[in-house]
Amino acid sequence: MLRAALIATTVLIWGDAGRAQAQCVGDCDADGAVTVAEIVSGVAIALARSSIDACPAMDANGDSTVSVSELTTAVAFALEGCPPAPTPTATRPSCGDPVVAARFGDCVRSANEAACIDAGGQWGRYPFSGRQGCFCPTGQGGCPCSSMDDCLSICIASPPGGDFDSCSGVERGLCSDVSPIAGCFCTPWGTTGGFVGLCSDP
Fold first, then answer.
1. In this structure, what DSSP letter does residue 13 have?
2. What pLDDT, in 10s, does the model give residues 22-60?
3. For residue 202, which of 180, 184, 185 has the smallest C-alpha distance?
4. How far apart, in Å, are the Cα atoms of 116 and each of 19, 50, 105, 121, 199?
5. Which of 45, 52, 112, 151 satisfies CB 3.0 to 4.6 Å to 175 for a cystine?
6. Measured between alpha carbons, how far is 31 from 133 in angstroms, rounded to an integer?
7. Alpha carbons within 13 A on the beta-carbon side of 158
8. CB distance 188 to 147 below 8 Å
9. pTM of the full structure
């Protein structure tokens, strides 16, 4: 089974602002890779033994802390490589409901229940971490995709026959209708354009 399928990780979300500035969680020195030393730095921050200033890139959701989900995301990027940065000319994917999609960026950046609801999201507890957060509709549920750039959130597909080793044979998936999502699925990864098995457990 692919290593990524064994990692419970929060999948990165790129909204309007996020797509213009891709984030590789754990890449403290912004060199495009996550090292063991950077993972250790993230653990120190999570245990309150170090300040978030030591590695702001560990703080994926901007809450000035490092959670288990953020650490496992950093580990996933250390194993599989950081996602490619979108080009400055990248545009919003064309498929889906443009009204809902236009609010997605504000929704994923919302820091409290009022802002979440105002942006069209639903406030609730994430299944793994148990912390409260915003579940944001993408307006793209069911839109076809073959790379992360095709979706505002994540491109997902069911593993053929339920076997995650067969994800490499997947060529197309569907954009998720909400972010974040929990579960195991095939998703595009890295610069090769191929699909891998991934478990998302925010």
1. -
2. 468 899 988 888 999 999 999 989 888 888 988 988 987
3. 180
4. 20, 30, 11, 5, 25
5. 151
6. 30
7. 3
8. yes
9. 0.55
